[in-house]
Amino acid sequence: MVSTHHRVVACTIVAVGLAAAWYLQDTATTSGPGDVAARPSAAAIVQVPPASRQAAPALTGQLLDTSAFRLAEWRGSVVVVNFWASWCAPCGDEAPDLQAVADATAGLSVRMLGVNINDDRDEARKFVDAYHLTYPSLFDPAGEIPLIFPAISPRTLPNTVVLDRAGNVAAVARRKVTRTELEAAVRALAAESVATG
């Protein structure tokens, strides 16, 4: 059994290593209009212009409660997809803010989805209970789902992706976000979607 201290240290080391990698990629050219992961950004949330948005992968799988999930059934809603694990300290730090955003924007047809990766189901459920999270989370113990999202890093947590009502990647956060940061981005996207939908 790996201690919590060792898990936090490991998570921090990986995060620092990836931050250095983003810095080294600063002079790289992007491979396409939707390649928002190729360059680092000081902003917590990177917005993707409507003309440059690409469709999110078709997510399907089993939720922590073992029920089936299909992201396609949420088409028409703005969807916040947050990648987390019970052993990741920054994930715990941002969990209350994610729940607050979910509560505050529910009336705008905004849905929140967690993706629990590289974790134990029982530990993940304890995390959900501890932070009183009411939104569902896909269970991805092998960490396969982040590999199909080119906008984020599969090697660090947390990551957050916001999808517009058409199911396209509209905003990306490659680090912990606050309620203020995320709610502003989500509300702006919800308003944009209504205006242009």
TrEMBL record:
<keyword id="KW-0812">Transmembrane</keyword>
<dbReference type="InterPro" id="IPR000866">
    <property type="entry name" value="AhpC/TSA"/>
</dbReference>
<dbReference type="InterPro" id="IPR050553">
    <property type="entry name" value="Thioredoxin_ResA/DsbE_sf"/>
</dbReference>
<keyword id="KW-1015">Disulfide bond</keyword>
<dbReference type="InterPro" id="IPR017937">
    <property type="entry name" value="Thioredoxin_CS"/>
</dbReference>
<keyword id="KW-0201">Cytochrome c-type biogenesis</keyword>
<feature type="domain" description="Thioredoxin">
    <location>
        <begin position="50"/>
        <end position="191"/>
    </location>
</feature>
<dbReference type="Pfam" id="PF00578">
    <property type="entry name" value="AhpC-TSA"/>
</dbReference>
<protein>
    <recommendedName>
        <fullName>Thioredoxin domain-containing protein</fullName>
    </recommendedName>
</protein>
<dbReference type="InterPro" id="IPR036249">
    <property type="entry name" value="Thioredoxin-like_sf"/>
</dbReference>
<keyword id="KW-0676">Redox-active center</keyword>
<keyword id="KW-0735">Signal-anchor</keyword>
<dbReference type="InterPro" id="IPR013766">
    <property type="entry name" value="Thioredoxin_domain"/>
</dbReference>
